[in-house]
Batch of 2 targets.
Target 1
Amino acid sequence: MTIAGAVADVLRHEMKPIIGSIKCDYKLVDLAFAEIPSAGEFRKRLNSKNSTERRHARHFLDILEKGEAIPNTYAYPVQVWRFGDDLTVVSLGGEVVVDYALRLKRELATENLWTIAFANDVCGYIGSARILYEGGYEADGSAIYYTLPTRWAYDVEERIISAVHEIVEKMKN
């Protein structure tokens, strides 16, 4: 079904009003990267047939050659909007995999919950623990297209989910 069709379907039914105050909160969560490649590993990638991989390696070698450190964390945005007790919208940066929405829906079952991705930042694929353990493009290969030094650490899902819970609980008080 297209979005327009879904909207038309909703408009054919009686709407439920959202009552109560609107609250919003935002938090930056430090997401850790896995082990940062060494200068030697980046140098090896300069010989890649893939031009994006070569640019990625050159970018991080330039940082190291300036005497700077490659960041080992990323400031990741988590935002929650609460519309009374009727609707909670969780906005997550980057392209989070569906595991996040499913887990939040399960854990915040008392909320009428919408989870939105690509909110406040487009920092790359944000794999869940399952995706990171399975490996593959989202977990291992996509970092070069977002100029991230390497894949995410295995605990990013827990950090993000914990931040959402913290914000939701704070808003209830």
Note: The first strand starts at residue 22 and ends at 32.
Target 2
Amino acid sequence: MANPYRELFQLPGTRAFVLAGIVARMPYSMTGIGLITMLAQLQGGYALAGAVAATFALATAFCAPQVSRLVDRFGQGRVLPLAALVGGGGLLMVLVCTRLQAPHWMLFVFAALAGCMPSMSPMVRARWTALYRGQPQLQTAYALESVLDELCFILGPPVAVGLSVGLFPEAGPLVALVMLVIGVTAFVLQRATEPAIHPRAAGRQRSVIRSGAVRLLCLLMMAMGTIAGVVDVVSVAFAQQQGQPAAASIVLSVYAIGSCVAGLAFGAWKTAIPLPRLFLYGGMATALTTLPLLLASDILGLSLAVFVAGWFFSPTLIVAMALIEKLVPPARLTEGLTWLITGLSVGVAIGAAGSGALVDQFGARSGFWLALAAGAVVLAAALLSYRRLGAGSEVLVQNFS
């Protein structure tokens, strides 16, 4: 039986841009937690550290789609180096200001500037789309990228924390900055696989987020991100409550493994089911798998519950990306993909903050009620998307057979 993932890399240049993309996207997962660890050590508290990291997160949520709109208009080779220069320069200045004990307002200004660093996941997916548009390999490519995204977010935070604690406080963000420079530089040098700039209609172009269908997809991604954020925070609190704080890493690893394995399996699956129906099934399954989280009474039970929940995370994300590719014009693809990644990131922040507040007030398990509410939003968004996109719509049928 042919390996669909091996087939992806038969085209020249694919390995190079995937490897460069992995390096370039790591800073996204390392910078926030790296700033918190650095500032907590040098400033002696978490209030300032959390506020600066939140500023960076909000700035990336705002800037990433704008950078992607410029990429769609002028190309990756022209925009990504500039965005990396601005974002990387802002991050460097945060490190300098921290070391020099500069006024706190300067930390917030440069943290916001650091948020201009490009979101690389959509850039890699745009290259895959340019190579395999309308072909069955595209689902496999999207599956691979979803798994790589998760691996980066699994590895990035502990690497950043370990560097800042084990070497010196600025080490985590500094390594993230170096990886940003190296990764983006190597990525843009891969000219042969850079997507072509598509002709645009005359006049000012509205953002794709004005589309009702795109907004629904973003809403669902935000709700899915909220579930992931809840699992991250509550798993740590639950393990501490059980007197086994180290077990939190096991729970989170099981969640990630379930999602990654399902994503890889889904990418190799060949089906002729219309995308809107696949999306509906994924949304329903994601919503239903939040229920067992409330029943977990020990580490084993929680591990099983999050493993099941993880099984439907990557497949739903993969289908959402495939839908965006069908919904938006080729000239706006990078922006559309970025809005989904942004929605997911914002959701993770909401889930982490919201569940943290619930845990402080009502105990560890109470945080899962936020996951249940997010699951209801996922279900509602999936149903509305299915109705809007049309059951069995010929335009949105992706035949992977």
Note: The domain at 13-196 is CATH 1.20.1250.20 (Growth Hormone; Chain: A;).
